[in-house]
């Protein structure tokens, strides 16, 4: 089976992906200890991917089992793949074809199962917690068509 043409998705997403020029410096910062002041802690850049699979599903004509791997390939082409800390897909797993579920599992994508209202809340909470856990080095890639997520 041939690999789907993903150049349209890649060209649309290319300018929105974090790159080595816009990802925060991974060199540790040296700080002097100042009583009563928080210190900035840094580390390697980390990327959290949050995919709203319920709303932004696999495009027609694209093999469903190829999508998670192709997302990682696109990120790898831009030097980002090794920085992925979290990759979650949100949706009602009972509606997913088995080959998509299997592909997600094989590529390290966690499927968060639920119905639409609870998925929105879970995704927002997960993005918030990712930001809390990675305050200076975390970047978020949101794959969704919903309009209510903040920029």
Automatic annotation (TrEMBL):
GO terms for cellular component: peroxisome. Residues 46-145 form the NYN domain. InterPro entries: Marf1 (IPR024768), NYN (IPR021139). One of its GO terms (biological process) is regulation of gene expression. It comes from the Eukaryota. Residues 1-41 are annotated as: Disordered. Residues 1-10, 17-33 have a biased composition (Polar residues). One of its GO terms (molecular function) is RNA nuclease activity. This is NYN domain-containing protein. It comes from Taxus chinensis. The lineage of its organism: Eukaryota, Viridiplantae, Streptophyta, Embryophyta, Tracheophyta.
